[in-house]
Amino acid sequence: MGGTTEPDTAAARGSWALVTGSTSGIGQATALRLAEDGYAIVVCGRDGDRAAETRRMIESAGGRAVDLVADFTDMAAVHRLVGEVRQALSGEPLDVLVNNAGGGGFAPTEETTEEMFDRAFNLNVKAPYLLTGAFAPAMADRGRGAIVNVGSLSTRMAASGTSAFQAAKAALSMLTKSWTAEYGPRGVRVNSVDPGFILTRVNEHMRDMFGNYLASLPAGRGGTPEEVAEAIRFLVSPRASYIQGAVLSVDGGKNSVVVM
Ligand SMILES: NC(=O)c1ccc[n+]([C@@H]2O[C@H](COP(=O)([O-])OP(=O)(O)OC[C@H]3O[C@@H](n4cnc5c(N)ncnc54)[C@H](OP(=O)(O)O)[C@@H]3O)[C@@H](O)[C@H]2O)c1
């Protein structure tokens, strides 16, 4: 028998995960879980203080992280972020990309200005597109990697007053399939997680208004960021090794039943 073989874990490989929008909510919960799984984390968002706080949370639990700041409605900032990530990793592999930062575009169509529309598509589609184009080829060259796009229940079900957001998330959902076709054969698994109503900062102001609606869901309540993060953690892990191009709904059953 030979000597001991080092286990093929994220920590052993020195793997990094870039989680966009990890300064709060679903992204932060995901960053903390992937750090527990041994990934070094690139934390990023717009708010530098909360980015640094998330990095400190990871470090105080024994993990490794860097914190970077970028506004994804500005493509120059996204290009700058790509350079900063490469510099921070100095040759260590980025094996996971979670395209989580998103939002915007919440207005009736006739009140959505071109600028609002462009911001929604920049944030939810173009920034993930540029990041994937920047980092997926190196994953494919190494023959391993996982990308998770955080979509929305609204990629498949419409609600009034959020058309630009819905169109952007639907485009991102299609990109999960496009990237599965492009990178899947070279070892990069790409999947989507579609949250329903998750209790985060974005909908704090709507919780009372949605009380009856949430009670009527099969789950009987809104979801937590941690519940979405667990789905992302699973899709990134080797336990999901045969799952590619899939959409995992984390919506308390909303997608499956007619709520009366
Ligand atoms: N919560 C829900 O019910 C729900 C439902 C469906 C889909 N989603 C999706 O889930 C994802 C996470 O949302 P969340 O609920 O966790 O919201 P959240 O707590 O507000 O977190 C959003 C994250 O995205 C970042 N972000 C927002 N705009 C950005 C921009 N222009 N540039 C760079 N980063 C930006 C934020 O960074 P800063 O705070 O630092 O600016 C923050 O880290 C989003 O894609 C959202 O569309 C959420």
Automatic annotation (TrEMBL):
<dbReference type="InterPro" id="IPR036291">
    <property type="entry name" value="NAD(P)-bd_dom_sf"/>
</dbReference>
<comment type="similarity">
    <text>Belongs to the short-chain dehydrogenases/reductases (SDR) family.</text>
</comment>
<dbReference type="Pfam" id="PF13561">
    <property type="entry name" value="adh_short_C2"/>
</dbReference>
<feature type="domain" description="Ketoreductase">
    <location>
        <begin position="15"/>
        <end position="196"/>
    </location>
</feature>
<protein>
    <submittedName>
        <fullName>SDR family oxidoreductase</fullName>
    </submittedName>
</protein>
<keyword id="KW-0560">Oxidoreductase</keyword>
<dbReference type="InterPro" id="IPR057326">
    <property type="entry name" value="KR_dom"/>
</dbReference>
<dbReference type="InterPro" id="IPR002347">
    <property type="entry name" value="SDR_fam"/>
</dbReference>
